[in-house]
Amino acid sequence: MNDSPVLRLRGAAFTHPGGTGVSGLELDIAPGEAVALIGPNGAGKSTLLKGVLGLVPRTAGTIEFGARTPVGGAGAEHAANGMVGFLPQSADLDPDFPISVEQVVMQGRYRGLGLLRWPGRADRAAVRTALETVGLAELAKRPFGELSGGQRQRGLLARALASDPRLLLLDEPFNGLDQPNRDALVETLRTLKSRGVAVLVSTHDLDLARRVCDSVVLVNRTQLASGPVEAVLTLGNVQECFEGVEVEIDEHTLVVPGHEGH
């Protein structure tokens, strides 16, 4: 497996036109590595993910996508096209719209199809593989709106996987999921890691970070700490990151009561 970072940030900052953002980002993500992005509400986690996608302007530092991409080029974020899959925090599909699960997942192939080409055998195979990966292959023909909330989330993850990304960005993917769907998503992430997909997941679930992630980045408008999970998820680091929110710690889990991260 190629150990060159899939994503590298050096001194990066991403800033909305209104002035809010996140800065001081130093990050390498290798193939098959999962990194948890943790911080309180408004810490800039979603901004970071959207910045990697080029949806929020980079205002400082450099970004590099694999060995193919020059560091810090003026349009470096465009290199994300075709190699980055994204699962947003809020669904962008009306559950009442008459579309099948299979058709939703095929949307992940449209970027590579262009305007004049219909989906072909390779596209259908990619959709089938994505559905199998998230455990929804038997529901491919089911109307998307008939799925449970957790199944819809897994269907949207399949859409992100259909483009065969090298890097997967997940924005609070476990919010609102029941335990069976949480467990299914954890197993999906482990499968993707074993295939060499790099994962950057924004979450406020610190136990989840321990279960599935190799490294953690703590952010609160700037990067506060990064490194292996056990080294970073200490009581002192988490208290600094969450600024006054009561933190409890035992030998297994860090808990931040009442926090609903975005």
TrEMBL record:
* Record-linked SUPFAM superfamilies: P-loop containing nucleoside triphosphate hydrolases
- ABC transporter domain span: 7-246
Source organism, top-level taxon:
Bacteria
Keyword hit for Transport: yes
Q: Which UniProt keywords apply?
A: ATP-binding, Nucleotide-binding, Transport
What molecular function terms (GO) are annotated for this protein? ATP binding; ATP hydrolysis activity
Name the Pfam families on file.
ABC_tran
> Per its record, how is this protein called by name?
Manganese/iron transport system ATP-binding protein
